[in-house]
Write a structure and sequence with these properties.
Oligomer: single chain
Pfam families: PepSY_2
Order of helices and strands: HHEEEE
InterPro entries: PepSY (IPR025711)
Organism: Phenylobacterium ferrooxidans
Protein name: PepSY domain-containing protein
Number of strands: 4
Keywords: Signal
Radius of gyration: 16 Å
Structural class: alpha+beta
Length: 91
Amino acid sequence: MNKILCLAVAALSLAAADVALADGNVSCPAATRAERKPTAELVQILKNQGWKIRKLQMFNGCYEVYGFDEKGRPVEAFFDPKTLARVAVQP
């Protein structure tokens, strides 16, 4: 029974690691408020892709989005505020 419980905890930890590791070394080029696209535009794009947005904020010059992707998986993603392109997290 203990082995099954340990395996279940390990599997859940690995599933959550994707979200936990996202908050790493990420930054976007400096953009003035006038250069940034509205957050509502990003939210609409992501909703059209099937995402459910729980929180959106600025982090290191990027839009940081917490929510669930089109498959219902938890996600923390970063987007360039000028282009709304997804930004990769550096290890």
